[in-house]
Write a structure and sequence with these properties.
Blueprint lengths: L3 H24 L2 H5 L18 H11 L12 H4 L11 H6 L31 E3 L4 E3 L11 H10 L7 E2 L2 E2 L1 H10 L3 H8 L8 H16 L10 H6 L7 H11 L39 E2 L36 H8 L19 E2 L27 H10 L58 H11 L10
Antiparallel strand pairs: 1-2, 3-4, 5-6
Helix pairs in contact: 3-9, 6-9, 7-9, 11-14, 13-14
Bound molecules: heme C (2 copies).
């Protein structure tokens, strides 16, 4: 976070259990925690200097290989398409659902595919409590449950609601290995990992498959830094007056970098979607990989709510039906430590429940045609950037301008106007950022920002400068 003081209200309350959890985490080997196949040693032809060009190319081909699902027809790219900034490429699914269909007809996942762009720059490892940022940081997926891109890539192959390589309801690396061996990339696979690679154990070969995909994810094809914003940083182009205003609102600073002279207003976006105070520190990733509960409403059209049939989907069904609440980081870290998730009686209720990783904002507006609909947040509930920014600005307000105080037992009692937004998927007085809806308080970065419609529009225009492909590097 650019300014740790801003977060201190929430942080004070999550810091203690956070430390307890991270202490436990240090005692356990990561492979045990995550339950993934440990990668084999890298073969000699691709040592130390990072992945070879051939390995990245192979990874890209495997990423787009539709023979690696069961039934065939779905690849990683089916859900992470470059034309939409490596998110979902079917406009209607984004508009009417959010979470997306898997390889088996009728099955759906419970979350929206985030972009994979720039993921290679994100902090790896199990989410840990970061004292400077005063929040949990690190890991992949919306809930941080895998520590690096190679172990991440093992998951969709074996997820019953995604690529569905399972035998007796258990993930089967052997099925993926057999499909690669029989597929059109087998020759290149042997060139990269050795002629006799397919004589190795399934676990080893599966490790190479995911290693190659992770190598592709480190390539410039996935993270090119070719947006208008990058051109602006290089001095190749100026931002329009409106875009520059958006950047200044986003960072609260005239210079467009946190720490510069205070701008007229601060929309606080850079608190979680980081712009470096000093550009020499590293690229602007527009995320600090922190976990926060910003009060995203439930997506009533999440198809996962209907995914209740244990017979047709034994390994991936949703036992809670429409009552399902996504606890994000809480769903992952609490069970790991034998602690209850979302249990009102549990001592650690709310400490991290309902927090999700702040995604990068690079390519949030990348779409193949102007009327293509994208969706946003872990459950895809928002369908436009205009809505997203308006949400940040007004989450705690009613149509009559009253302030909703989520720290009250009944936050909606006595309100004359209607809440502008449906209530958060998980109301929590502890994790919900700015639960009381206070203005200008240390936690007021979400819910009541005091932006005008023009301010909101300019922030959207700025977000549109983050789309790659504006220039060639
Ligand atoms: C059916 C759609 C689907 C397919 C196929 C799919 N993904 Fe995903 N991907 C998702 C969803 C949904 C998430 C978020 C899941 C979560 O947070 O629980 C995700 C998350 C990710 C992330 C995490 C990004 C981050 O910032 O944490 C990466 C990386 C990724 N996928 C890569 C892949 C790779 C590699 C493959 C192929 C082996 C793949 N995906 C196949 C839907 C899909
Ligand atoms: C307190 C931290 C925080 C602040 C401040 C914040 N965000 Fe976010 N942002 C998040 C988190 C966390 C998510 C994911 C939440 C979820 O899915 O439940 C998110 C998601 C988003 C998304 C959706 C991206 C996607 O791929 O789905 C957009 C767009 C976004 N934020 C823009 C902004 C803008 C613009 C601002 C300033 C007006 C802002 N954010 C301020 C933490 C923050």
């Amino acid at each position: 976070m650019a300014n740790p003081v801003k977060m201190s209200g929430i942080a004070m309350r999550i810091a203690a259990p956070a430390r307890r959890i991270s202490r436990v985490l240090h005692l356990l080997p990561v492979a045990f925690l995550i339950g993934v196949v440990t990668l084999g040693a890298r073969p000699s032809q691709a040592q130390s200097k990072g992945p070879s060009v051939a390995e990245m190319k192979l990874g890209g081909l495997l990423f787009a290989d539709k023979t690696l699902s069961n039934p065939q027809g779905m690849s990683c790219q089916t859900c992470h398409n470059p034309q939409t900034g490596f998110t979902y490429p079917i406009s209607d699914v984004n508009e009417f659902l959010g979470p997306v269909p898997g390889a088996v007809p009728g099955r759906f996942g419970n979350r929206k595919p985030p972009t994979i762009s720039y993921a290679t720059y994100l902090p790896a490892g199990v989410p840990h409590f970061d004292k400077v940022r005063q929040a949990y940081v690190g890991g992949f997926f919306w809930d941080g449950r895998v520590p690096n891109l190679a172990s991440q890539a093992q998951m969709p192959f074996q997820n019953p609601n995604e690529m569905n390589n399972l035998v007796h309801n258990t993930g089967s690396p052997a099925m993926v290995v057999a499909a690669v061996k029989a597929g059109k990339n087998a020759e290149l696979f042997k060139q990269v990992f050795g002629e006799d690679v397919f004589t190795l154990s399934n676990a080893k070969v599966f490790g190479y498959i995911t290693q190659a995909i992770a190598a592709f994810e480190t390539s410039k094809d996935v993270s090119p830094f070719t947006s208008k914003y990058d051109a602006y940083l290089l001095g190749k182009v100026e931002l329009s007056t409106e875009e520059l205003d958006g950047l200044r609102l986003f960072t609260g600073s005239y210079t467009g970098r946190p720490g510069g002279k205070k701008y007229t207003k601060n929309a606080q976006c850079a608190t979680c979607h980081t712009v470096q105070a000093d550009p020499k520190t590293g690229p602007d990733l527009f995320t600090s990989s922190c976990y926060m509960n910003i009060g995203v409403p439930k997506n009533v059209n999440n198809p996962y709510y209907t995914e209740t049939n244990q017979i047709s989907n034994p390994a991936g069904f949703n036992p809670f039906g429409a009552d399902f609440i996504d606890y994000g980081l809480g769903d992952y870290l609490y069970p790991l430590h034998g602690l209850p998730i979302g249990d009102p009686a549990g001592p650690d209720r709310y400490e991290i429940d309902g927090t999700f990783k702040a995604p990068t904002l690079r390519n949030v507006d990348k779409r193949p045609v102007p009327d293509f609909v994208k969706c946003y947040m872990h459950n895809g509930v928002f369908k436009s950037l205009k809505d997203v920014v308006h949400f940040y600005n007004t989450r705690n307000l009613t149509t009559k301008g009253e302030v909703i105080d989520y720290t009250k037992t009944n936050p909606f009692a006595g309100l004359v106007g209607k809440p502008i937004w449906a209530e958060p998927e998980l109301i929590s007085t502890i994790t919900l950022v700015n639960a009381p809806g206070l203005k200008n308080s240390p936690t007021s970065s979400v819910g009541r920002l005091g932006l005008s419609p023009t301010d909101e529009a300019h922030i959207v225009l700025f977000l549109q400068t983050l789309t790659d492909g504006y220039f060639k590097r």
